[in-house]
Amino acid sequence: MANKQFRLIIRKLKEMFNIVQLLNKIKEAQSNNVSPSEQLKYYEELKVEIFTYIVAEIYAIAFFITYLRVQLSMISGVMYHENQINKSSTMSDGNSLLKDTTSRYYMFIGLLENFHQKGIEHLVGIVRNLVKKSFHNLKITDKVTLKDVLKNLNEIKSNWNESFECLIEENVLHVYRHCDQQQQQQRQNSSTDDGSIADDENAVKCKLLNEYKACSKFIDEMIDITKLSDFRTVMENCIDIGYSNLFDFINECFIQFEQQQNSQQTMESRQFINPHQINVVLIKLLPLIWQQVHQNDSDDDNNANRNSSSNRNDNRSSEFCENEKRNRNALLVQFLLCSDSLTCFAANIYEAFCNEMPTRKNIGLSTID
Asked: What is the pTM of this model?
């Protein structure tokens, strides 16, 4: 599920950026001998777009994985608790106390659809402003080192952290409270219907109304959880993992650039490449970064078909592992899902909801040092 949603996030992000159009404009400008100053404007815009994209990927994936893991833990805990009640009722009087309520769980998970719209747009808008601020003094014609780029990326991260709590609250409201308002409106519409509707139709509306009420309880609990300091700690850890992944990617881009410059050398004559000693004009680095981003994102969709045709005797699990290794963001998803802080936090949420609807003080990172 996480990997499928990850591909939807990447697709949504690409729809929000005009990087391909900018690259086409630059090619047209070069072929039509457009003035250098005009071409530099395109490159400055390209600089903002590319760095916004690769940083926004971190926050979009980290926020989504955290939301998803927390919601699934809540649902799992409630299902266990209600199944225990159901077993006790069945054993005592032979009747099942609880009816099928899985639709409300689907409704609650379905709220993440709103993250693909409002939530991602909110994150991208914030990141774009931070990129413009941090990369303002780094001109497109400047020679840059790996240290220069990482310094600017760290500045973005620091500026984000200054208002982290407020930004989480804003994003949560975009994703969950917006949906809750829509559900309240639908509940009001259902409650104002006249009594002329048929009994079976009325039963359906009542069932839907009860599901909305149950889902609203989940939403309230979710919003309370996101206000916990431990939730912020988990989110910070996930974002740190994302930045570590991004720094490795930028490091590889510098190495790749140097390898392209020395492509005439034979494999035997090549020596160790220290990325910190490489100087490159930013205008030459940007297309390479986007090429690597595009290659990584395309691998997730295309590698499975290529591998299955060339290695028909390999089992599916080994193919999956190879595909994931070639895609840095798919690998990031796996890192986040297995991170200690998120796993521990999710386990505490599950345990709390297994017993009853918990209070905020019952959930935390009690087992994390």
From this structure: 0.82
